[in-house]
Amino acid sequence: MTTTSTAPLAGRKGWTAFVVLLLPLLLVSMDVSVLYFAVPEISRELHPSAAQQLWIFDIYAFALAGLLITMGALGDRIGRRKLLLFGAVAFGIASVAAAYARNAEMLIAARAGLGIGGATLMPSTMALVRNIFQDAIQRGRAIAIWSSAMAGGIALGSVMSGVMLDHFWWGSVFLVNVPAMVLLLVLVPVLVPEFKDPAPGRFDLLSVPLSMGAVLPVIYGLKKVSADNAITLVPALSIVAGLVIGAVFVRRQLTRRDAMISPALFRDRGFGPAVAINTLATFAMMGSAYFTTQYLQSVLGKGPLEAALWSLAPSFSVALAGPTASVLVQRGADRASVISGGFVLGAVGYGVLAFAGTDALWTVLIGAALLASGIVMVMALVTDMAIGAVPPKRAGSAAALLETGQEFGGAMGMAVLGSVGTAVYRADVKDTMPDGLPPAAVEAVRETLGVADAVAERLSGGTGELVLHSAREAFTHGMRIASVTGAGVLIAGAVLAAVTLRPPRIAKTSAPAVADAPADAESGTETGADDAVAV
Length: 535
Fold this sequence. Notes:
Blueprint: H1 12-33, H2 39-46, H3 50-78, H4 80-99, H5 104-132, H6 136-167, H7 172-175, H8 177-191, H9 207-228, H10 233-255, H11 271-299, H12 304-311, H13 315-330, H14 335-353, H15 361-389, H16 395-432, H17 439-445, H18 449-458, H19 461-500, H20 503-509, H21 513-523, H22 527-533
């Protein structure tokens, strides 16, 4: 890879600003998993119904996914730093509201506020990284660290939750956000310059509900399929409705001069494939998480905090994966080949998981580490490619599209691989339950492994142990079959990357920094701020 870029290099102030921008990234990704272990205490204190408990979890992801495109486009218009500061205020206030919620309705509303705040923070941070690091090599390194931090934040959230709950009340898991948001409000104005499109055109208000109508029904339908492990009428209609509205949204973007998502983003032939490949990578990541978290607790019988600590083990290799991929490309390796190699490494990780038994802690941890490392390699490189391919003035919209694709991929991965594993689990359980077990108990055991554990506790001695043993074997078998399926998906991803990201296209997108300086000038970026960052 050549390094003939004449773009200015970011200095110490730029890298310090980048570290500050990692704060909101970590917190938003941690909030995905921070409630995993707090559910029992929340249930005792707030007494939510089954539907309310589901919304306490899901409303955050729904608000986040539904507003990413809107907030990315808004940041391009009003300024990414300004939007980031608004988001920090919203996230901090919502965190306090969640911590001191007195009933389930208040907690659901506060979680929605956290999702809105997160939707402003996520695309703003990635877009600011694009603006701060104009040099392609520096930007590649920064985005590699960014990708590893995002993956690590999800694992760290569950551990943080377990530690806080060991010492404080359930609301404390949200108060962790507050000092970080205060620090962000203090440091960002000092360290991070403002960037925006000086002539963005009129903001298309009608596209806001259209973008939400395209994203939310599909995400809801996929989550419903994942929760029910079946495709029923309501989620199917929801997905279809979202796709129809999505078609209307896309047509509007193609026919308006002031489109929220400019068609110019896709003029570079590498941007579209990068978004698709990033979505596929998230599919694999979240699909595996569905099984490994349950395996540690329900199959191996580990407590919540112990399981969370064990789940951190793969994070050590993940932390190195993104920077390693970036270094390989900078030293001359073909980007398409490294991305394909990341997919293959992930497929090997799924292959290791396919050999797991009911007492295979290290097999699962090694498989999860290989899988996550390969996926983070892919995500780091395609994110850098996509963000580097677009003009700096459109970085917010580009970041929002990438992150919306991640939401789709994660929901699809849990729905598809979760359904595969559950189908195997239910078939095995039906055939292996001990004779004489009441039909109602058999049906309950077939629901989930967690329900099977509860049923086994109520049965007498040997029968309960046999039920639990059979359920654990069935779950592990389902995980193995889902892992084979996931490996096949990742092999297909390796082929897709090799075909769509072949060298001529990579050469076109791997040196955008040569044109970055004039693009910044055209977009009216504050040159004084640029110079201050790139000292």
